[in-house]
Amino acid sequence: APAAAETVYITADRMLDVRSGGMVARPAVLVEDGRVAKVGTVTDLPAPQGATRIDLPGLTLLPGLIDMHVHLTSRHDLHGYRRLTRNATDLAIDGVVNARTTLEAGFTTVRNLGAGSFADVAVKRAVEEGRVPGPRLIVSGPPLSALGGHGDANLMPYDLQREAEGVATGPWALAEKVRYNRKFGADVIKIMATGGVLSKGTEVGAQQLTEEEMAAIVKEAHMLGMKVAAHAHGNAGIKAAIRAGVDTVEHASFLDAEAIALAKKNGTVLAMDIYNTEFILGEGEKAGILPESLAKERTVGQTQRTSFGEAVKAGVKLTFGSDAGVYPHGWNAKQFSRMVKFGMTPLQAIQAATVVAADALGMAEEVGSIAPGRYADMVAVAADPLADIATLETIPVVIKGGEVVKDVR
Ligand code: ARG
Questions:
Q1: Alpha helices for 224-374 (secondary structure H)
Q2: Are 39 and 87 contained in the same domain?
Q3: Claim to verify: residue 111 and residue 134 sit in the same structural domain
Q4: Which of 36, 251, 387, 390 has the fewest C-beta atoms under 10 angstroms from its C-beta?
C-alpha cells in the first residue's frame, strides 16, 4: 500500500476524456494519498520535487473500468450440480483468487450481485484491509428471491430440501431481508424479479416477485441509502421492477417499447450481459450447465442482443454488467466489442463502464473518471480504444489508488 501523503506523478502519450471523447496529448496526472489532485499535460503540470513517477510512454490512459455485475465467488467451471461441491470457505477463497484476476483485467471497481454466506463481504474486507489485491467492491450478499425462484436452492429433492438465505414471501418478510443483508455487510440489494437461465425449474419469462413485494424492498433499501439491482429477463417482471423503483435492471432480455419508455421515464439503468450467451452456448455443457438451462439460453441470447440495440437507439441509460463468474473472471472486457457490434459507439461502451456506472453506483465523485477528488484508478492500453475497442481485452498496466497493481508492458 502507498505510504501516507505520497505524491505520485503519472504521464502517458494520450489520455481519453471519457465524458467528451476527447483525446488529451501528453497528459500528466498528479496523485496525492491515492486520489487525483490535478490533471493537466506534461507542459502545464510539471512533476513536483520528490514525486514517485509512473511514465507510460506509448500508452493511452483511461479511467479504471467498472463492472456492475460480477460473481467473484462463482466459478465458470462449476455449474449445475457441481456447485454443490463448494462450502462457504471455498466461496471466499475463490473470491480472493477471482478478485485479483478481475483487477488485473483492468476492472478497478466491481459490483458483486449475489453471493452465498456473505462470502463477498469477507472478500471485500480482505481487499479493503490491503491483505489481498482486488477491485473496490460493492457487494450484495445473498440475493432476495421467491421460494423456488431464481435465487433459491432448487437442486435438491424434497427429502434433502434446502432453502437459500435470501428467500422470503411477502412485502414485510422481504423488507426484513433487506435489513438482514445490511446488518451483515451488504452495500446493495440484489433481487430476483423473474426466473433465470441457470437456475433449475424456473422460467425466464415468469415474474417471481410481485410488484408490491419489490416496492417494499425498494422502499426499505432506499430508506437505508442502498440501491436495488433487479435480475429480470421476462417483460412483465422488467416492467414491474421498474415501476417498483429499482435502480438497475440486470439482463433486461425481453424489452418492448413500453419497457423502454418506462426505463427512460424513471431513469432506470440497464445492465445487459450480452457476452454471456457465447460462453454458455459454447462451453456451458462441459462446465456442467443443465440441459434445461442450455435450452433456456437458446431462447434468451439473441433476443437480449436485439433488445440491447433497441435500448441504445432509444437512449436508455445502459451500463456495463458482464455476469463474469458464469464465464471466466478476467474475460469481462470481451463484452465491449459485443456492445459495439450490437449498437453502441466505442465511446458509449467505454462510458457504460466508467461514467455511467459510477453514476448508477452513486459514486460519481469517487470513481469512473480521471478528475480531481476521484480515486487514482486508471488503466493504460496500447491502442486507441475508440479505434480498436478490443484493446481493452489485453490491458498491460493497471493503477489503483495511485499504485501500480499490474505492469506487463
Ligand atoms: N445469471 C443469468 C441467469 O441465469 C445468466 C443469463 C445469461 N444469458 C444471457 N443471455 N445473458 O439468468
A1: 235-244, 257-266, 276-283, 291-314, 334-341, 346-352, 355-361
A2: no
A3: yes
A4: 387
Asked if 165 and 281 sit in the same domain, the reply is yes
Tell me, in angstroms, the distance from the centre of ligand 1 to residue 93's CA. 24
- Mean pLDDT taken over the chain: 98
pLDDT at site 389: 98
Distance of CA 178 to the CA centre of its chain: 20
What's the 291 CA to ligand 1 centre distance in angstroms?
14
pLDDT at 383: 98
270 and 400 fall within a common domain: no
Would 86 be classed as within a structural domain?
yes
Residue 276 alpha carbon to ligand 1 centre in Å: 7
Q: How many residues does the chain have?
A: 409
**Which residues form the pocket of ligand 1, taking CB atoms under 6 Å from any ligand atom?**
196-198, 251, 273, 276-277, 280, 297, 300-301, 304, 323, 326
Residues 107 and 179 both lie in one domain: yes
Determine the pLDDT at residue 110.
Answer: 99
pLDDT band at residue 5 under the 50/70/90 scheme:
low
Buried residues in 130-166 as b, exposed as e (16+ CB within 10 A): eebbbbbbbbbbbbbbbebbbbbbbeeeeeeeeebbb
Q: Return the percentage of the chain with pLDDT > 70, whole number.
A: 99
User: Closest ligand 1 atom to the C-alpha of 198?
Assistant: 4
Ligand 1 pocket mutation pick from 190, 326, 335 by most atoms within 8 angstroms of CB: 326
pLDDT tens-digit series, residues 148-172: 999 999 999 999 999 999 999 999 9
28: containing domain? 7-64+367-407
Interval 11-55: pLDDT, tens: 999 999 999 999 999 999 999 999 999 999 999 999 999 999 999
CATH code of the domain in which 38 resides: 2.30.40.10
Residue among 20, 41, 61 nearest 402 (CA): 61
Complex ipTM > 0.85: yes
Number of domains in the chain: 2
Do 26 and 86 belong to one domain?
A: no
CB 273 within 8 A of CB 297: no
Is there a single domain that holds both residue 285 and residue 210? yes
